[in-house]
From TrEMBL, chain A:
This is IBH1-like N-terminal domain-containing protein. It comes from Capsella rubella. It holds the Pfam family IBH1_N. Keywords: Nucleus, Transcription, Transcription regulation. The keyword Transcription regulation applies. Its main location: nucleus. PANTHER family: TRANSCRIPTION FACTOR IBH1-LIKE 1. Residues 5-66 form the IBH1-like N-terminal domain. GO terms for biological process: regulation of DNA-templated transcription.
TrEMBL record, chain B:
Keywords: Nucleus, Transcription, Transcription regulation. The keyword Glycoprotein does not apply. It comes from Capsella rubella. Residues 201-251 form the BHLH domain. It holds the Pfam family HLH. It is found in: Nucleus. Residues 182-191 have a biased composition (Basic and acidic residues). Residues 114-193 are annotated as: Disordered. Its main location: nucleus. PANTHER family: STEROL REGULATORY ELEMENT-BINDING PROTEIN, TRANSCRIPTION FACTOR BHLH48-RELATED. GO terms for cellular component: nucleus. SUPFAM superfamilies: HLH, helix-loop-helix DNA-binding domain (SSF47459). GO terms for molecular function: DNA-binding transcription factor activity; protein dimerization activity. This is BHLH domain-containing protein.
Amino acid sequence: MQPTSSMNEEFLKKWQMGLQIVRPSIDNTSVSERKKAIKLSADIAMASLRKGTTCWSRALIQKTATEDNFLVRQMLSGIKEEALINKRLPKKVVCHRKIVRRSKKILRRKTKSACEEAAAKAKKLVKRRTQGLRNVVPGGDLMSNDVLLLQETLDYIMSLQTQVNVMRSIVDAAEAGTEQ
Amino acid sequence: MDLTGGFGARSGGAGPCREAIGLESLHLGDEFRQLVTTLPPDNAGGSFTALLELPSTQAVELLHFTDSSSSQAAVTAIGGDIAPPLHSFGGTLTFPSNPVLLERAARFSVIATEQQNGNVSGETPTSSVPSNSSANLDRVKTEPAETDSAVEKQVPSPNQTNRSGKRKDFEKKVKSSTKKNKSSEENEKLPYVHVRARRGQATDSHSLAERARREKINARMKLLQELVPGCDKIQGTALVLDEIINHVQSLQRQVEMLSMRLAAVNPRIDFNLDTILASENGSLMDGSFSGTAMQLAWPHQAIETEQSFHHHRQLQPPPPQQWPFEGLNQPVWGREEDQTHGNDHSNLMAVSENVMVDSANLHPNQVKMEL
């Protein structure tokens, strides 16, 4: 399950394209500006590798499109960027507050044994972690079920590792250059 | 009832050896089919051979209605892994497919007794069957509908028939839902899908669906555990999830950190493909300093980036927790940038050219392919 070298190369190609687009606008700006642009382009490159097949990549593209619409459009040209940017993500499922409260009341009425209580506690812990994972993975709160969430997390971690690999090799080379 | 007892004991005893046979059992099943169909009718000597030649529904009836002694004899004949070849066949036909028969017999007996007791869960066959003989089990399951109806005729009691009807409905539902997953070859032969219920597990559709979902989640969890380093020894869903969240966050932080480093080290990002292409031939010859630097720093990276990544990670493992990025490192980076700006500008230019050449060296063929 390690990211492959073909993925690395593809990402590098995309990223170079993005940097090339970004470059004229950030030539003589502060570090934070440059860093932001670099990160943005890297993110878009990572998301565009999946070509909109995964939920997280779509969410990431939409999120970056709000920050720098021009760059996203430029980088995604060729893979239906309009459809990706404007694609409506699945709606968040929002429960009515009254219904939730009522169901909680009903739940509370039941008397629980110690074993059940422990199970409920474990379930609660897992639920909280799942919520945390949703917050971490882009578009996680739009994924309706846990299976989908875990699958997307798998894919997202793979892509992140690719991104980190390539960026690290580039940065190391650049820093080695400065030392000499 | 004594029937099931005998079968249970038999199948329990034959468990390990059946697992060993599991792979061959498909083939053996075919042989058994042929045997059953090609048996000459005049061979019918004892009750057991009669049982074999009859279609399965009648066989069940026989099993059910023969007196205890004859059925016991049948049981011993069927379950005889060590038993000598059956003499009722005239000695010429040996009996090759013990496991198949065993399972079939167990299935029948359980269905019969199930109807008697009104016990819907069907624990005995599923719990006693090893997992690798699943295809075999499917074969055996090919005519449960018939047997169900046959047994219904025998024991006509209102609530029990109702139950069996429900069960049939459920089996149909499961069949239709998971049919797509199977290969076409299997699809022709095995119309039934087994969502197994172990001893004491519920078999209504809701809990079965929930169980299937949980299994899916567990499989994904396993994959994630393999993917996230140092996560495979942790027990417990919550802890694993914690670790996964940490890993994702650390990766995200690494990306931030790396982009910051790149921004600090290389203020003029010169990834211009045109200049790269133009200078691809020239820079290798004219840029003496950049050429040497690149060859010192990049020989392995030009070959494969993954290797270099591992190499670098071994050299200087960057634990992401040590880079609390937000407010703390900001001044440091700023200072460094000032320093680099203060040093001299030509150095920076050299660096940028370096990176430029490196990228050209990394993917010259790709770049060519693009154009």
